Amino acid sequence: xxxxxxxxxxxxxTYYTLPSGDKIPSVALGVxxxxxxxxxxxxxxxxxxxYKHIDGAWVYRNEEEVGKALVESxxxxxxxxxxxxxxxxxxLDISLNALGVDYLDLxxxxxxxxxxxxxxVYNKELTENPYPTWKALEEMVDKGKVRNIGLxxxxxxxxxxxxANPLKYQPAVNQVxxxxxxxxxxxxxxxxxxNLLLEAYSPLGSDGRVGASLSVPEVKEIxxxxxxxxxxxxxxxxxxxxxxxxxxxxxxSRVEENLHITKLPDRLFEKLENAARAHPPQRxxxxxxxxxxxxxxxx
Length: 299
Known about the structure:
By secondary structure, the chain is of the alpha/beta class. Helix content is 38%, strand content 14%. The protein has helices spanning 39-49, 63-73, 91-99, 124-128, 131-142, 156-163, 185-193, 210-214, 217-226, 230-240, 252-259, 266-277, 288-291, and strands at residues 2-5, 13-17, 23-25, 29-30, 53-55, 81-86, 106-109, 149-152, 173-177, 197-201, 244-245. Helix 6 links the parallel strand 8 (149-152) and strand 9 (173-177). The radius of gyration is 18 Å and the shape is globular. The two termini are 26 Å apart.
């Protein structure tokens, strides 16, 4: 995976090169749970302060407002990276129409749990064998509706299960929860060995844990030493680990703050990395029980 460094990011990669040759920006504005009449302003703020990557999904129910903000921002379509996620078969065209664009830079299978055509949980055959779903995404690439395709919330086992098939296009990314409390060490190492880029959602700790993340002693110590904020320490750590990071906020000052990252000196990076590995990993989000399935979707 090629990284492209910039002084603007304090020596950290501004983007990574995907197998297609496309360059995906390393920091994105995530718009999950960004509410009505909030998300549009957040997107315009982000684009105005220099973001070039917006990470959304059909199921977030806010793509129309995101699309309106894109138009109002005046930013050219080719100058912003747009990601959306597949839940139902019809979702891609709905997303394209809502966003007001004719292609996506990245389209992701949102969960390894496949739904039935009526949206009910769940299609056991396609969950155990996602290859037909992947082939449908490959067709979208060939039709020009999508430039890159990827995965989200896939375990190593599930990725191996998919990639054992004769794929026309390899997965460009796997978007998963990664944060101080759940650093995904094994998955990160496996992904680097297999040239698969990880994207970190809930990078500041997921709902209810952001405050705890920003109060980690090592994070506060590094922030004080470098003269940056605790959030900037954590976001910098993510990019320095070699992942795309997807912080979300609708507060203009925080949206801007989250983009200003810098390379941590090696000793400080190792200090934070070791602290993240020193406790039992704690996942912040697992919808398996809520879906009523009798297995862990992350297994």
